[in-house]
Write a structure and sequence with these properties.
The protein has helices spanning about 20-30, 50-60, 85-90, 120-130, 150-165, 180-185, 195-200, 205-210, 225-235, 255, 270-280, 290-300, 350-355; strands spanning about 1-5, 10-15, 35-40, 70-75, 95-100, 135, 170, 190-195, 240-245, 310-315, 325, 330, 340-345. By secondary structure, the chain is an alpha/beta fold. It is globular. The protein binds (4S)-2,6-dioxohexahydropyrimidine-4-carboxylic acid and zinc ion.
């Protein structure tokens, strides 16, 4: 029986939604993570510090009182964001970044940025205030093939912005291509990347070969095997520029099993077991702690969580719910396609969650 102790992890890219869905998903994250960077793509988007504070309070209210979890809030960048809002964000201890969604790139991104050059003064101010820019790195031009949108974004948007504002600290979120990984490696400062669990485990065949599998549809979309290999090498390298952001993004199952299905994979319920499996397969368990618990904290100027999470590899697979009930509906939990032998040895079970699961 293999055992592993890591510092309590942080999820540096998480969608929690609001209302009923928030109440049903938050404790999966709060159970396994100390903190998470909370995405602001609600309807309406979180564009002010006041909205972020109200959202943070709704998140805190929904957390099981036995769990300690700190939501690290972000703002949604629009072409109407003001310098005053940025200044307030810099002065507010629970604000950790500003998210760039190219308008139309993904779920609830309609209010995002249409022309990056219009927000350059805002990005300059963010650099001066040391507010990180968290980037959804895909172009939206319909003429660009969806599998190329990340590489083209790096060429046409990210690299020019970095040349213009080298002091801006940037996270290339949910990087999915070898191009993205190579670009991060080639940069010598101020560029970091988060990686999701589903992009480490699946390539695009899982989505499209032998039938279309809507629960594997996410954005950026799954890529070829050569890209997945590059992501796995980077994640398991111990390099401090790469850290975990699950991009766990719950949608009701019927909204994904749909003629026009929503993008997003809900991985919060079994993320750590999946990840330990990846690191074991890559013979890199010694780097799991940097990826889950150290590199992201360092980037955001936080102390590593002092308490430990114990992972135990057993001969029996761990049990995970297949679905999480939400009233008449449900959310489908990420299926990695293999049994997960890594168990999280929690001090305390969260019975409410177990009862809630189908
Ligand atoms: O798959 C995704 N789902 N990618 C995103 O960028 C957004 C997210 C969501 O909010 O559903
Ligand atoms: Zn996301």
């Amino acid at each position: 029986m293999l055992k592993l102790a890591i510092n309590r992890p942080d999820d540096m890219h998480l969608h929690l939604r609001d209302g009923d869905i928030l109440k049903h998903v938050i404790n999966y994250s709060a159970r396994d993570y100390g903190r998470a960077i909370i995405m602001p793509n609600l309807v309406p988007p979180i564009t002010t510090v006041e909205m972020a504070m109200a959202y943070r309070n709704r998140i805190l209210d929904a957390i099981d009182p036995n769990l300690a979890f700190d939501p690290l809030m972000t703002l949604y960048l629009t072409e109407h964001t003001t310098i005053r809002t940025l200044q307030m964000a810099a002065d507010t201890p629970f604000m950790f970044g500003v998210k760039l969604y190219p308008a139309g790139a993904t779920t609830n991104s309609d209010s995002g940025v249409m022309d990056i050059w219009r927000v350059i003064p805002l990005l300059e101010r963010m650099a001066a205030l040391d507010i990180p820019l968290l980037v959804h790195g895909e172009v939206v031009d319909p003429a660009i093939d969806i599998f190329d949108r990340e590489a083209v974004f790096i060429d046409k948007v990210l690299d020019p912005v970095r040349r213009e504002i080298p002091d801006l600290r940037i996270v290339l979120e949910h990087v999915t291509t070898k191009d993205g990984i190579d670009y991060v490696y080639a940069s010598n400062k101020n560029l970091y990347a988060t990686l999701t669990i589903h992009h480490l485990i699946l390539n695009r065949n899982a989505l499209l070969a032998g039938g279309i599998r809507p629960h594997y549809y996410c954005l950026p979309v799954l890529k070829r095997e050569i890209h997945r290999r590059a992501l796995r090498r980077a994640a398991t390298s111990g390099d401090q520029r790469f850290f975990l952001g699950t991009d766990s993004a719950p949608h009701l199952s019927h909204m994904k099993e749909n003629a026009c299905g929503c993008a997003g994979v809900f991985s919060a319920a079994n993320s750590l077991g999946c990840l330990a499996t990846v690191f074991e397969e890559e013979k890199a368990l010694e780097h799991l702690n940097s990826f889950t618990s150290v590199n992201g904290a360092f980037f955001y100027g936080l102390k590593v969580n002092p308490d430990k999470t114990h992972l135990v590899r057993k001969s029996e697979p761990a049990h995970f719910p297949k679905k999480v009930a939400i009233g008449q509906h449900d959310i489908t939990v990420f299926d990695p396609g293999f049994p997960i032998f890594w168990h999280i040895d929690r001090n305390r079970d969260v019975f409410e969650i177990e009862n809630n699961s189908l």
